[in-house]
User: Which sequence fits this backbone?
């Protein structure tokens, strides 16, 4: 009896699992890669618009139908990077037991207040001095005395040391090192670190329809954009050709959400629709860009307050999505498939997440082909799934009832015997 009950429970679990299986609604093919290795697969606006907000329900399959592990990566709107830019070392005169000299060239006569030296690791302490010149004949002191020490890098065979001095723009800098007590240093490079900003990469979201309405009564220009499917816009760029000078406030309406009053009993609370919007300011002194919080929409409305001025001459409005990628190891010549669009699917747990730093940032890019619907998307808790689940519950109840009745009868027989 116990064995029969176990089989019954296993069968019900299998039915339940079948009801809860992966249910993808869309797929997109990936053209074969030309080389083996890691690639970036661009998640287009068309794909992301049909994913869960956290992109949990996307999967990558190879030709054999096996799941391919991947990482998710996203562009950063603005990131700041430091780049080492070298100066030319005209000569390095080494004088063991005396005063060694490094001559650095600053041809553009940039105004600088530091020089970074890339030095081979050495457990030593060196006294240095710095002077500047425009003709290599007349030298002027910049720093009478400084020290280079603790030149040890545990990760690399060289260490960068920064030498500060008063702001100056000499064509030549002369660094003198006291090598009277030890051998000269192995100075590999001299230069400076330049910090620069780099904008993230965006993809333009196709707009299905665009309309404009200028209201004479409210002095507001309404721009409505519809996309024909859900999308996640990150930025809007408005291209304005006139007038020459303008300053117009406004807002971008992303949609509405239902909110409930806090007071009163839960069953009696009243709800209302609240507008979701971000402020907009169009000025001739700045680029007409607006960044959004992450919000799923099917249309946008820009409202521009004109005051008593005539409406702006708007050439175009571009809606942009910050690029997001799947990073995966692909074999050359193989076709891969992205499947997505399952509102119940949880995020995958791949070992690859523990090795993100081991995968290069610069990788070949592949763009999926046009998405295709696998089937008509069913609402959560569709009739077929509900019937299957209720059938499993009914079967389990009948089985347990039967086993209970049989167990009671066996107990009665034992008593009578």
Assistant:
């Amino acid at each position: 009896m116990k064995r029969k009950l176990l089989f019954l429970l296993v069968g019900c679990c299998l039915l339940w699992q079948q009801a809860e299986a992966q249910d993808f609604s869309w797929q997109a093919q990936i053209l074969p890669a030309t080389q083996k290795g890691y690639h970036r697969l661009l998640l287009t606006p068309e794909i992301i618009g049909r994913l869960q907000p956290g992109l949990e329900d996307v999967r990558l399959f190879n030709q054999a139908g096996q799941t391919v592990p991947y990482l998710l990566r996203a562009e950063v709107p603005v990131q700041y990077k430091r780049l080492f830019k070298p100066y030319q070392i005209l000569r390095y005169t080494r004088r063991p037991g005396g005063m060694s000299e490094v001559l650095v060239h600053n041809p553009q006569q940039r105004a600088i207040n530091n020089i970074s030296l890339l030095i081979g690791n050495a457990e030593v302490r060196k006294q240095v001095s710095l002077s500047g010149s425009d003709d290599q004949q007349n030298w002027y002191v910049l720093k009478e005395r400084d020290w280079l020490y603790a030149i040890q890098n545990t990760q690399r065979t060289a260490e960068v040391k920064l030498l500060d001095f008063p702001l100056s723009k000499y064509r030549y800098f002369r660094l003198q090192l006291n090598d009277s007590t030890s051998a000269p240093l192995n100075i590999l490079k001299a230069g400076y670190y330049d910090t620069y900003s780099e904008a993230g990469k965006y993809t333009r979201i196709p707009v299905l329809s665009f309309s404009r309405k200028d209201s004479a009564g409210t002095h507001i220009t309404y721009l409505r954009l519809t996309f024909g499917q859900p999308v996640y816009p990150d930025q809007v760029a408005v291209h304005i050709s006139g007038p020459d000078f303008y300053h117009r406030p406004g807002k971008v309406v992303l949609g509405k959400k239902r909110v409930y009053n806090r007071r009163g009993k839960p069953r009696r609370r009243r709800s209302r629709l609240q507008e979701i919007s971000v402020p907009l300011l169009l000025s001739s002194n700045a680029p007409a860009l607006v960044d959004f919080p992450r919000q799923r929409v099917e249309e946008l409305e820009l409202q521009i307050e004109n005051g008593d001025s005539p409406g702006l001459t708007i050439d175009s409005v571009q809606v942009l999505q910050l690029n997001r990628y799947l990073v995966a190891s692909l074999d050359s010549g193989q076709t891969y498939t992205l499947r997505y669009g399952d509102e119940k699917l949880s995020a995958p747990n791949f070992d690859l997440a523990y090795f993100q730093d081991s995968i290069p940032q610069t990788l070949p890019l592949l763009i999926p082909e046009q998405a295709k619907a696998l089937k008509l998307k069913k609402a959560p808790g569709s009739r077929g799934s509900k019937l299957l689940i209720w059938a499993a519950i009914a079967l389990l109840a009948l089985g347990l009832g039967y086993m209970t009745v049989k167990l009671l009868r066996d107990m009665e027989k034992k008593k009578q015997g």
